[in-house]
Amino acid sequence: xxxxxxxxxxxxxxxxxxxxxxxxxxxxxxxxxxxxxxxxxxxxxxxxxxxxxxxxxxxxxxxxxxxxxxxxxxxxxxxxxxxxxxxxxxxxxxxxxxxxxxxxxxxxxxxxxxxxxxxxxxxxxxxxxxxxxxxxxxxxxxxxxxxxxxxxxxxxxxxxxxxxxxxxxxxxxxxxxxxxxxxxxxxxxxxxxxxxxxxxxxxxxxxxxxxxxxxxxxxxx
Length: 221
Fold this sequence. Notes:
The protein has a single domain (13-220), classed as 3-Layer(aba) Sandwich (Rossmann fold), CATH 3.40.50.850.
């Protein structure tokens, strides 16, 4: 586990943050992350432990015809990159559309233990990777989802992050959590990347930014 200069006070309230664990990101889904199903057993182990004072989930919840969908941009294919609101935007297959089976939280996990669900990507003109803030919008800002305030009101100082995908929504969530001043641990083996070829660089980057990296589930319990 990487070291961090952030507080390690054992009295700090710890939250488990479960990022976008939804069928559309699992094998067979519209935007499947290879090996995404391999995290489920470990995630369930964390969720059913007594290690966390609070558990919060994020959920991609796009309206139909969302601007991040390649289907809305004639002449473009999924994974093409365009400029949107002055910033790079990857175009995705239609996924996590509100009310569809692929947008549900993954069946089989003990979601009754989750105290709050932060739905994101609901603005049809703005994508939303991070659990803390939307992506750049037409006004040149990244509006808050309210997650940071919720955690602070519950006395949370430390966050353990897991979910999908490691190189997109998990990464943005970790980086925003660090920016918000939280002590952040990434449960590395309980995440998977859309493009795993960049994992080594991503790991070093997050460590350099101040995140702790945990390679074993047992170390978090």
